[in-house]
Fold these 3 entries.
Entry 1:
Amino acid sequence: MTPFVKILFGQVILLAMLGLFRLTAFASVDDAQTFALQAAEPYVKQGFQVREDYWGGDLGSGEKKAVRQQLFKGNEYWFWLGTEVERAKISVHIYDSDGKLAEDPDGWEKGHFAAAHVIPKTTGSYFIIVSVEDSPEERTHWALVYGFR
């Protein structure tokens, strides 16, 4: 094998490895979305329509992310959070534009799933706070989906 072929072969291997790494990184957020949608399944049977759009990313233990969403008085909303890291502890909470907790007490956290429920008293911007409370991973992928009726 000539030196040129060895270098070319090495570059092809490196590019292939980077491509696999990139696919793995995207798959983790996709996996988190799958778990969030799994948490929503029982609510779909109750008549909730799950929106196609979602939020996702990764957080370290103890980190939080705020998501702003316009909610309408008279509708009922559930927000479902999921992660592919089974031993992670995650949470989701809903605050109004004044920073007051707006969610109903029937939200829940079970393993690598969490959910928050709200029936807004007024139409306006609300802040959904997602948090990775604890995780065995340095960075934990998460996805947040929501539904309404």
Entry 2:
Amino acid sequence: MASKLQNSVRRAARVRRSLKKVANGRPRLSVYRSAQNIYAQVIDDVAGHTLAAASTLEKDLRGALKSRASTDAAAAVGKLLAERAVKAGVKEVVFDRGAYLYHGRVKALAEAAREGGLNF
């Protein structure tokens, strides 16, 4: 019987495999959600490097947030990431939710990134 970790890795790989089919060279907005923080980065898979990144661990966000594990914190990270990505010249991305459901903090981050100027 597969463990929860194995199922999670398998689910994330399935999502990423389907994204590669529709990406058409667009960078990937990848989300990692832990129990206490949320992290997001825009990755250029062709060149293999990160174009922009943001997380709740950054000093300017850490002081302004009541909780780093809330949807408000995720929205702040999404907005900050969108600003940095647009500044780096990226407007079109594909959203990689990983093994997480598109709900709660992941959804809040995605919607804030859309409002910040990213299209996906």
Entry 3:
Amino acid sequence: MKALVTGASKGIGQALVRELVAAGHQVWGVARTEGLLSELALELGSQFKYIAVDLIADTGVTAVLQALDAADFYPSEVFLVAGVYSSDDETFSTPNHQQLMMDCNFMAPVKLYDALMQRQHPPKHVVAVSSIFALLPDPLNPAYALAKTQLAQYFIQANGKGGIRTKVVYLGPVNTAINKHAKRRKSLMAIEPIQVAQFLHGLPKKSGVSHIYPFSAGITYQILRYLPESVYTALMNKARR
């Protein structure tokens, strides 16, 4: 299998790249950080290729396609993992932050997907990683929740078009840098990226369009959705801070 993974330099994306390469697949990684991608390539060898590019930029998707064409690389599986939760200053209410949430978490993966659909050999499966907050908005960062909601809706509706199966995974929380509890080695508030990677690896073989992972997140969501908004907001702000 040939796979394309965005957000490949760290977190869930990096764990997924390692998981796929260990299973014998050829993987092409996309991320912004050249140094981290280079280190990963040294670790994994010839089964892993990459391009360091910002998909938000106008030239980002074009650069990815040019690199794939030059290598004659046609992925059958695409994992749209890249995402961002905060801007550098973590000021969640500014227009710049809101635009960043939409550009990175919704527009960039959609643009890449649309471009891959136009290739001579489009992918067979596309997995878009959303967030549990797309189901119940994060009161601390509503722009993030909105962008992930639109991402999920887009790929649920895209399923089956052009013969391509698209799947949406509502994740959360995951023990990565965007999680406030990531500094803990083992956090009760989050699952580990390797667990997510193993789940995503097997996902294209499963039926259904959308999935919630882990199962405990689905149970928590069902409970929280019935709480008064003020109580939910207080609980989530305490948990995230």
